[in-house]
């Protein structure tokens, strides 16, 4: 997950404080994503008491919250209890921002990292993964989660490149053994089927680069 901050990205960062509304561009893209903790069945929101569909946990922190409606998630109410849906790679984000925004002094940089991390961790639905992980950052912002990948999708995304090499070059700690364990079927066609090893595709919100992450049960 090496980030090359391009000049284009630096320009974008200096003029555009943030792309999109809080939480809006941060998937799982919508409540019905197969790796989202969205639940259609009625439940009581811990914060506003509304009964209806919403997000189940896990929510990380010192308070037990089982259920959250979409409105309360988007408005950042998890912050009231210092809860989070995920953990951002804030160290990588800070490094990227420091390179892209040399004009910022330390406290301004800290504030930007904190704001973007809060948006990710407290306004983004849970992504259901096998293991905890650091949500990737690229070009000074957190990536968007796009989809799970099987080999058919990887072959398509690699285009003319060798798919094994493409995958191993983009996914940390990936080698041919990991490649061999990736599902053979299409994750897009069979979203409800889960395998012991999962490949997650993220996209940079600034340069659209693909960032891959994988884990296993
Ligand atoms: Zn609510
Ligand atoms: Zn990027």
How would you portray this structure in words?
- The chain is built from seven helices and ten strands.
- Helix 3 packs across helix 4 and helix 5 (151-158) packs across helix 6 (163-170).
- The chain has one domain (23-216).
- Strand 6 (137-138) and strand 7 form a beta hairpin.
- The chain has helices spanning 7-15, 70-74, 90-100, 106-123, 151-158, 163-170, 176-181; strands at 38-44, 51-56, 67-68, 87-88, 134-135, 137-138, 141-142, 144-149, 197-203, 210-216.
- The strands form four sheets. A three-stranded antiparallel beta sheet has the order 1-2-3. It has a three-stranded antiparallel beta sheet with strand order 8-9-10. A two-stranded parallel sheet has the order 4-5.
- The longest helix is centred in the middle third of the chain and has 18 residues, at 106-123.
- It is flat, with a radius of gyration of 18 Å.
- It is an alpha+beta fold.
- It binds zinc ion (ZN) (2 copies).
- Residues 9, 138-139, 204, 206-207, 209 line the site of one zinc ion.
